[in-house]
């Protein structure tokens, strides 16, 4: 309903703790336009087993959860669409200029 009213795309976050959690996206097909697979705690330091996503049957998804400058290369092998937002923060909602610079420097090397 919100999608129709506002004409905006919907990204559905899926909290992943176990392998079977990946399939939760199926209940949102036709509702959500894209999916974001995140750790069950949805904290910047928490990572779920990214191998759970190996056989996923959809294209419109993002990887999130614990992605940072130290594991970005591995994350990009799993998905080219990633959410690194919280790893660039010093405090929730507060971006670190230095962390952003370091991250951009790392990305240029990849």
Task: Walk me through this protein's architecture.
The protein has 110 residues and is of the alpha/beta class. Helix content is 23%, strand content 18%. Strand 4 and strand 5 form a beta hairpin. The protein is globular.
Rounded radius of gyration (Å): 15 Å
Helix content: 10-25%
Q: What class would the helix/strand composition place it in?
A: alpha/beta
**Looking at the structure, what is the overall shape?**
globular
Fraction in beta strands? 15-25%
Question: What's the β-strand tally?
Answer: 5
- Uncertain runs are none
Question: What multimeric state do the chains show?
Answer: single chain
Question: Main traits of this protein?
Answer:
110 residues; alpha/beta; three-stranded parallel beta sheet; two-stranded antiparallel ribbon; 3 helices; 5 strands
């Amino acid at each position: 309903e919100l999608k129709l009213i506002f004409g905006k795309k919907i990204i559905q976050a899926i909290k992943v703790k176990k392998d079977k959690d990946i399939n939760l996206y199926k209940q949102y097909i036709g509702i959500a336009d894209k999916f974001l697979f995140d750790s069950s705690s949805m904290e910047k330091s928490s990572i779920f087993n990214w191998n759970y996503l190996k056989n996923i049957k959809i294209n419109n998804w993002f990887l999130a959860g614990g992605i940072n400058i130290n594991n970005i290369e591995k994350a990009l092998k799993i998905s080219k669409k990633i959410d690194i937002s919280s790893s660039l923060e010093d405090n929730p909602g507060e971006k670190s200029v230095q962390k952003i610079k370091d991250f951009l420097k790392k990305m240029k090397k990849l």
